[in-house]
Amino acid sequence: MAGGRCGPQLTALLAAWVAAVAATAGPEQAALPAEQSWVQPMTASNWTLVMEGEWMLKFYAPWCPSCQQTDSEWETFAKNGEMLQISVGKVDVIQEPGLSGRFFVTTLPAFFHAKDGIFRRYRGPGIFEDLQNYILEKKWQSVEPLTGWKSPASLTMSGMAGLFSISGKIWHLHNYFTVTLGIPAWCSYVFFVVATLVFGLFMGLVLVVISECFYVPLPRHLSERSEQNGRSEEAHRAEQLQDAEEEKDDSNEEENKDSLVDDEEEKEDLGDEDEAEEEEEEDNLAAGVDEERSEANDQGPPGEDSVTREEVEPEEAEEGVSEKPCPADTEVVEDSLRQRKSQHADKGL
């Protein structure tokens, strides 16, 4: 009986002690504040906050080791944001692919500085001291800003953000098919290919319908006039082409004629030069013949003295007669002159 009564008492005492310990420990645990992050997460809905004031943004991914190494440094930098008068934010590229496309992030981690809507890329190591000096010494002023179509607020980068967001949704859908539903990967690829083709055909049909709605057909008489005008223009162009070809042909014929005339003139000049040379040769030959004849006449008729000489010296007289010009030589010269004249006449023809 005593043992049965002590059992319930002991359990009651143990329960009371546990309740007392819990009551004393509860207020102490409630008094301890939970650790709060000073880094503001940025999404597609609140990213426009960086257009005002001064900001530093970090693009990261949970699976990136380099991003994890800079988390503590980035948190320390954010705690000193009030002293530096700067706001610090972070963007998860897995959850926000549209923002990664808007800033055209290609490497992780990526850091950006924003001052009143003007963005610059920070390419430092991501250490607290370097980040602090970058803000205090205003090193960002020496960095070229992202202006024009490269600016995250531009229309082109807005389109890039839409493409990245669509690709992110497709990636999530692919993971849903392959991981959650257990569908093979090639079936998912086939589905996306077919969906792309169907979507392209649908968009083409929409464009055709829009063009038909806004296109106003011309009346028949206006269309006929336009056709006639087009035909007349084509005929005019053809006539111009024919005229140009005829002009080219005429110019070529004139050039050929001029070249022929020049060749004939050159031939005539050469013929005149040949005639002059032949005349000079004839004159020289005639002068030589005249000289020989004059020398023969100057010797005179043979007298008595010559007769006696011939009798005394018959050998010398025979040598003198052989030295006189023979009429056969003159005939040869005349024949050569005649042949040259005939050759010249043939060249002239």
Structural account:
68% of the residues lie in helices and 7% in strands. It is α/β, with parallel strands linked by helices and 349 residues long. It has a five-stranded mixed β-sheet with strand order 1-3-2-4-5. A hairpin with a 2-residue loop joins strand 4 (110-115) and strand 5. Residues 52-135 form the Thioredoxin domain. GO terms for molecular function: disulfide oxidoreductase activity.
Q: The CATH topology of the domain at 40-150, please?
A: Glutaredoxin
Strand composition percent: 5-15%
Q: Terminal Cα separation, in Å?
A: 167 Å
> Helix content range of the residues, please?
55-70%
E-strand count:
5
CATH class of the domain at 40-150: Alpha Beta
Poorly predicted segments: 1-15, 20-34, 301-325
Number of helices, counting only DSSP H or I runs of 4 residues or more? 12
Fourth CATH level, the homologous superfamily of the domain at 40-150: Glutaredoxin
Q: If classified by CATH, what would the architecture of the domain at 40-150 be?
A: 3-Layer(aba) Sandwich
Q: What is the spatial order of strands in the main beta sheet? A: 1-3-2-4-5
Task: Assign the structural class, choosing from mainly alpha, mainly beta, alpha/beta, alpha+beta, or little secondary structure.
Answer: alpha/beta
Keywords: Disulfide bond, Electron transport, Endoplasmic reticulum, Membrane, Phosphoprotein, Redox-active center, Signal, Transmembrane, Transmembrane helix, Transport
Region (Disordered): 224-349
Membrane topology: Single-pass type I membrane protein
Transmembrane segments: 189-216
